């Protein structure tokens, strides 16, 4: 046997062991209850969640809350159970199989069930691996069922899965068509709208209604059919089989007998040796966004890949990806636990798929990569600067190229046509990147965020330079960055009556926290100048930033804390923007400033978190973790984080983790499934 063959066998054995590990018996109960459980976490349109602790208590939903029904049934020795979804078939519903655990990791959500002498592990794997952008951008999720006997006997086991046409429509009245396709290795079923109005809609509370939803299984592994939901499910519940012919009554509305793609697997006699079955679900949007009038392909299509080719490749890479995902999940958990404990690790694992799935990866016409976020239930804007800023820590930790891909479209848009001397707010209504839409768009200064957005960009450009060890990326856009720095020199220390990222609180003049951000941003720009060899500019900017700090400490002082606004005594606010002074070792603000603020937060913290400021008990989970990271001790971090963990455990309603909630009762105020939750990774940046 050759050395090459031995190496190939060794790698295959490792992949198999890792696969069995992630798909095997579930771990102990997670430290935190997920607000909602990620099942499919690909992008803003292909994003499906379970909103109940038990998978069989409800149908899965799109992040918007609209049902995206997935159903799984099991037949054990002729006895029917359901493990996913809550279908009623001809007036009856099979009993739920007892769910014994659910565990959320960055790329895997794992459920276990046990009844009738059988244990079933159902794993949802979305391989959002940040070091492999082709895999991360691939719109495919794996569902894997692992079945074994636990009573020393053998049992006849059959599995069922279906997905409805709800996954490819915005509303259930839209007409759909179904089709059977195949590759060399796979049986493929797909559903899509009849009209295929590509990129015809934009905005917030929308589901995709162009492109095609796919489900695929290896040839010979299943029977599969296009059918009405009741017909397919009733057939399986009767004798474990499916109808022998596809339903061809298309086009028809998605709610007309609820057309599904359905798969049935005969596991045969199952004993202690596990039987494993899998389905790949995927969504090909064909075109994903527009950029100033041009349609963009998703990144995974950049080399001409097709949907069927993508599915074949996803199937061929299954074992390898299961191993890589398990390794990534374990390393993320371990790293987070070392930084902030097991509950912090659980929080990061919950946040990771949510943050990734709020983005879409594509290429601009000039070939530059862009990673566009969507503001879920906070306006529907695309590529928002004050959204990419709080979400940046995840990408700072895992892939600088992804961080740059959030910044590049802002810079390219500014070069193309942004008319003002400060940074824009957004790029348009997702998925149409046709220019800022927030406030008055490009044509007015009435509802802009000049200090906020300009400072955000300068801070993150300095972060990129530090990560890469050079200023090459900043030099591409130096004139723009200088213009924004000049704006902050003029307007940043004592901001006029303008909005900051917490725009739901309204306009505020003389904002102390915003002033701190501008000061930090100028120090970051000074660092960029130093790295670019512009030494004199760096010295002047640094001196100005230090002067800002001296004035800030005097004007913001309110005895035992610092104010909300310079001209408002007896007020307070969370000074989360100071975190970069610590993390970048800027040495701007005296240590006593942070110590005094943190001590005061003990007085104003609520049962479920620290409010933003004295005007309400609104809390923001991203800023809370940033503020907790200001503490130099683990004890100080835990003190502010414990109420946050309590919020995660108690929050209602059950939606993908909101970042804006009431600190008094843990109830969601607004927003959900937003990319800003990537901000919880900021503790990773602490040295």
What is this structure's SSE topology?
Elements lengths: L2 H21 L13 E5 L5 E4 L10 E2 L7 E7 L2 E6 L10 E2 L2 E6 L3 E8 L2 E8 L7 H5 L2 E10 L5 E10 L10 E8 L3 E8 L18 E7 L4 E6 H11 L12 E2 L5 E12 L4 E10 L4 E3 L2 E3 L10 H10 L1 H23 L1 H16 L1 E5 L5 E5 L11 H14 L1 H17 L15 E2 L16 H19 L3 H5 L1 H14 L20 H20 L3 H22 L22 H5 L7 H14 L13 E3 H9 L4 H17 L9 E3 L5 E3 L17
Parallel strand pairs: 5-6, 19-23
Antiparallel strand pairs: 1-2, 2-3, 4-5, 4-11, 7-8, 8-9, 9-10, 10-18, 11-17, 12-13, 12-16, 13-14, 14-18, 15-17, 19-20, 21-22, 24-25, 25-26
Helix pairs in contact: 1-5, 5-6, 7-8, 7-9, 8-9, 9-11, 9-12, 11-12, 12-13, 16-17
Précis, in short:
The chain is globular and about 80 Å long. The chain is built from 17 helices and 26 strands.
Question: How would you characterize the overall build of this protein?
Answer:
With about 675 residues, this protein is an alpha+beta fold. The chain folds into two domains: about 325 residues, Glycoside hydrolase, family 65, N-terminal domain (Beta-galactosidase, Chain A, domain 5, Distorted Sandwich); about 325 residues, Glycosyltransferase (Alpha/alpha barrel). The protein contains 17 helices and 26 strands. The chain has a nine-stranded antiparallel sheet. Strands 6-5-4-11-17-15 form a six-stranded mixed sheet. The longest helix is centred in the middle third of the chain and has 23 residues. It is globular and about 80 Å long. The N terminus is likely disordered.
